[in-house]
Request: fold
Amino acid sequence: MMTLRKSNERGFADHGWLKSRHTFSFASYYDPRHMGFRTLRVINDDIIMGGGGFGTHPHNDMEIITYVIDGKLAHKDTLGNAAEIKPFEVQIMTAGTGIAHSEFNSDEEKPVHLLQIWIRTDKVGHKPTYGQKSFEKEILSQKLTLVASGKGDEGAVHFNQDARLYVGRLQANDNLDFPLDFTRHAWVQLMEGKLEIGGQLLTAGDAVAISEQNLLTLTAKEKAHFLVFDLA
Reply:
């Protein structure tokens, strides 16, 4: 079973300094048909204008993942972390019992384009933690890279849920076969390019939810950059 989520059907907010597309219900956007998928709760496709950003604000009991597509995002949090997130890097915060952070575009002129993802944690009350890692070499040299995992996979950034997150990058006409346990589920989020999955053509911003499949075959109709979530 495959369900297409078109880019232009997502929620949209324009705050001037921020333009955001909401895949699932978030803030003032509410749609009971789109409250999440499995343990995925939020996928926000954000463009932050130069000098704009989110002031310090709290989170708890959520796994928060940031993936920058273009530009640089400055981060500070109450654990004492101060970092810059660049393309092909993955940042994960386990909010746990409570963490507050700020996110700003430190470039006064160039926008930063990113996805912020929330995954429900496996239990409440985890100790807050922070992780960040660059996968630039791997992403630029192979079709699919495991970047985050709740399964203890070596080399991946850890989070607290039965899920894996991959970054894919295909050249035009490349194919990729992704084996999937029939009892599990997948979400593919296309960030750039055109991608065909099971006869469905995705363009930038589109996504597809997949259940009861053993194999996903992805074909790039043009150079494509995407995320694949393997979910319980």
About this structure: DSSP finds one helix and 20 strands in the chain. The mean pLDDT is 97.
